[in-house]
């Protein structure tokens, strides 16, 4: 007797509830139709309400016609069926007594569980499928993703429930067409513009995922899986390329922010033509000013955490960046370790290097540095011009003279910014004070004519540049 009323209410609620299973992927719209019937003998104005905007009613007749043609649905299309009011919980439809209508619905989600994609050690698989036009990447999890529940209620004029549609959404893996990996200083906004390529749809792509050729007349819209990221595109005049603009909020180092960008080329955004995956690495910035060919030193501070770690530093350009300590060292908890970075670039300009401190036991990133180099061109002491025959089998050998400017005996090192084109007879030589030495140069053969400027650095044992020679090589 105590549970009779509740049990009857639950049974009546289950009787008017329709269950629907839906398999959906990121950015793709899934179309469905729900049969709504007025069981009463009087006309009713039914209000349709969805508890989540991802599951919505298609009120536009043109959009409904588009999805019917896309899914090859042969049911009858009714025009101007819904009445939409500002501030209302949802659209309204008028039903005559015992009348039945088809309510068009669309489920489409642009959000993604980004935390799941980070946990590669906890069961995430990144698999690759080779197609005719390249590789496609699929992201999936060993553990089954949680089922999402969406509900749509249909209420009569007296707010009584007439029907309930419960949609069980099973997330499925999506295709990743391109992957971008960006590096940016920590706690700074990343502003990036990416130009859209004029891609074509591959033959093996499903019909509803066909991509149109991108030009200035194609309507392009973009969506981002992270609501905190600004992602937009601008309409340009015909003939101009189209760009996608991103604005990503910064995070502390060494955090990595991952998100997806979906590019749509159809008006109603039925399915993304391309899905791009972004990894933004936020690093601690280090500014270094140096001279090309000369070694510069910079000290970095690495702070210990709560446990003892075995750490090793890795650089993106090991030929130009050396780290001391070079091998594995122990980082005690709450301690401060000084890491000495030795930079020796060979070409002038602005460049970016990356230095990572890694826990070698747990393979975990501890800290990252973004090394921003401002490299100046060295002062040239002498300029030489050499002619090398094209298609020579053994190349060409030349000699240039160098005089020790010091009064004591010194040892010098020879360096070049083009080691693939120029080799030295001896990389190291020793001469007395005021004496001269002939530097033997060996130029590699070439199969094409042209000219290239090669810088020869005469450095001390501390890698300080004593003199710089410019050799213009003409392949004739």
From TrEMBL:
One of its GO terms (biological process) is negative regulation of canonical Wnt signaling pathway. Residues 18-173, 180-281, 293-374, 381-475 form the NPHP4 Ig-like domain. GO terms for cellular component: ciliary basal body; ciliary base; ciliary transition zone; non-motile cilium. It comes from the Eukaryota. It holds the Pfam family Ig_NPHP4_1st. PANTHER family: NEPHROCYSTIN-4 (PTHR31043). This is Nephrocystin 4. It comes from Tetraodon nigroviridis (Spotted green pufferfish). The lineage of its organism: Eukaryota, Metazoa, Chordata, Craniata, Vertebrata.
């Amino acid at each position: 007797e105590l549970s009779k009323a509740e049990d009857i209410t639950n049974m009546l609620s289950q009787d008017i509830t329709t269950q629907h299973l839906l398999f959906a992927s990121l950015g793709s719209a899934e179309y469905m139709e729900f049969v709504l019937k007025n069981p009463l003998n009087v006309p009713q104005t039914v209000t349709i309400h969805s508890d989540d905007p991802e599951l919505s009613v298609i009120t536009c007749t043109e959009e409904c016609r588009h999805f019917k043609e896309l899914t090859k649905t042969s049911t009858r299309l009714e025009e101007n069926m819904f009445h939409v009011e500002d501030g209302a919980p949802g659209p309204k439809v008028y039903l005559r007594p015992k009348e039945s209508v088809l309510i068009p619905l669309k489920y489409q989600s642009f959000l993604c569980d980004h935390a799941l994609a980070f946990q590669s050690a906890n069961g995430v698989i990144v698999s690759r499928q080779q197609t005719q036009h390249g590789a496609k990447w699929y992201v999936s999890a060993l553990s089954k993703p949680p089922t999402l529940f969406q509900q749509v209620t249909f209420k009569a004029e007296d707010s009584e429930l007439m029907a309930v549609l419960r949609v069980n959404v099973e997330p499925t893996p999506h295709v990743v067409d391109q992957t971008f990996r960006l590096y940016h200083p920590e706690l700074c906004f990343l502003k990036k513009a990416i130009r859209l390529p004029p891609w074509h749809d591959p033959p093996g792509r499903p019909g509803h995922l066909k991509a149109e050729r991108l030009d200035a007349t194609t309507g392009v819209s973009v969506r981002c899986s992270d609501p905190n990221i600004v992602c937009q595109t601008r309409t340009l005049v015909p003939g101009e390329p189209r760009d996608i603009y991103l604005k990503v909020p910064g995070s502390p180092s060494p955090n990595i922010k991952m998100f997806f960008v979906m590019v749509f080329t159809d008006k109603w955004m039925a399915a993304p033509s391309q899905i791009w995956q972004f990894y933004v690495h936020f690093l601690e910035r280090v500014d270094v000013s140096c001279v090309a060919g000369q070694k510069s030193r910079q000290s970095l501070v690495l702070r210990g955490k709560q446990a003892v770690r075995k750490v090793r530093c890795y650089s993106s350009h090991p030929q130009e960046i050396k780290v001391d300590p070079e091998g594995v060292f122990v980082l005690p908890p709450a301690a401060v370790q000084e890491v000495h970075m030795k930079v020796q670039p060979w070409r002038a300009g602005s460049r970016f290097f990356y230095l990572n401190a890694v826990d070698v036991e747990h393979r975990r990133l501890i800290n990252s540095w973004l090394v921003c180099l401002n490299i100046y061109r060295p002062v040239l002491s002498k300029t030489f011009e050499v002619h090398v025959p094209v298609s020579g089998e053994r190349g060409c050998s030349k000699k240039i003279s160098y005089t020790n400017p010091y009064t004591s005996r010194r040892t010098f090192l020879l360096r070049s910014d083009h080691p693939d084109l120029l080799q030295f007879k001896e990389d190291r030589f020793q001469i007395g004070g005021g004496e001269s030495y002939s530097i033997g140069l060996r130029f590699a053969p070439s199969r094409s004519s042209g000219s290239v400027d090669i810088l020869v650095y005469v450095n001390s044992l501390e890698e300080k540049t004593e003199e710089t020679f410019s050799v213009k090589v003409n392949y004739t």
